[in-house]
Input
Amino acid sequence: MLGAVINLAYLLGALAFVLGLRRLSSPDTAKRGNRLAAIGMGIAIVATLLTPGGNGTLIWILSAMLIGALIGWRAATKVEMTAMPQLVSIFNGLGGASAVVLGGLELYRIVGGAQSVSTNEILILLLTLFIGGVAFTGSILAYLKLDGKVWDETITLPRHSLINGIFLLGLVAFMAYLCLFPAQLTTGVLVLFTVLTLIYGLSFVAPIGGADMPVVISLLNSFTGLSAAAAGLIYGNQIMLVGGILVGASGTILTVLMCNAMNRSLFNVLIGGFSASGGASKTASGDQNVIEVGLSDLAIQMYYSKKVMVVPGYGLAVAQAQKACKELDELLEANQVEVKYAIHPVAGRMPGHMNVLLAEVDIPYNKLLDLEEANAEFKDTDVVIVVGANDVVNPSAEDDPGSSIYGMPVLQVWNAKQVIVLKRSMRPGYAGIQNPLFFHEKTKMLFGDAKDSLQKLVSEVKNQ
Output
């Protein structure tokens, strides 16, 4: 009877995962989808705790869950929106670390003669250890890069991609050897293999440029899902298997979609073809001047416009300017000015970063336009306000074959009647290349902190 109840609970949990994941595909239903998936996970955890065979370990499990829940709750409530990508990276890494622990312990039991397993089971354990190790250390390095604690130039070796290829082949050969000759799997060999996988995780992420971090986060998330699925195979746990496959598949699909949005292959991303020190644009800043705009003039122009488009970027998140942006939106809408938001698929530091940021201040989802929709409407837009975005509005992607972002689909803001760029300085964006948009005849610059600039702009609009 208990077994039937547990299987039914696993079925309900898996169904909640699928339905929750389906709802995450739309901003309107994403919050409900997240809650539904969380309920499914809760059902799965309770069912697992009710499974016979705990052998008095329940108190340890519950204690660990309580400690983890408290740490996770505090981290989730205290983290700033700008640091959300770093938090996601750490969570990904901890999922991979869990797989390393599970795979390592089971392999240690084999070394100690505590159990006899087949070659296929050894392969699954080694893959769990390998994928989890790459997800763990790779995610930690991604966190350090995103947080500005590590720079690409300090950790990248000459011909690093070639080194990674040789490293990967060596690890695959190592796994094949251990599967063919399981008697060679000693404690020392197990430790060596574990250390090598952890080092490879660092090396794998090292050459990938900062501008590609959203893709890397998504890819590492899929690795964590695959490691969880492999752990589900180890323990014969259906919910771990289903959950891991869902995470792995959705992460992989998202990675491919983001690569398509950048018009680049995943292979090009992984070999570091879009690094922070990427190729320069043909337009240099030294021989051109920028035009600055006054707050009063901009307020008048926006107040009497018919249509205004806002392009949010990471600078908006850093300045925490979304509330000021919302207030400006309401003032303009009250004067019959249509306001919309152009969202690039890889804007920010993680998938959906800008969508989450704007949803935080209750900006309606129907105002958010994707790349194709926005590009189609720019020609009918009076003013485009670029708030902290850089690489996703760079015309070099379309007209400069020598640029490292050439071929990447971008928001064609220059097709609007007027472009206003809010930036702290003339420093390049995350890709490390100059943006000719700043010197375009339709562009004017408004320098300063995005939040402060928008708040002053709101005051000027109120005076109209």
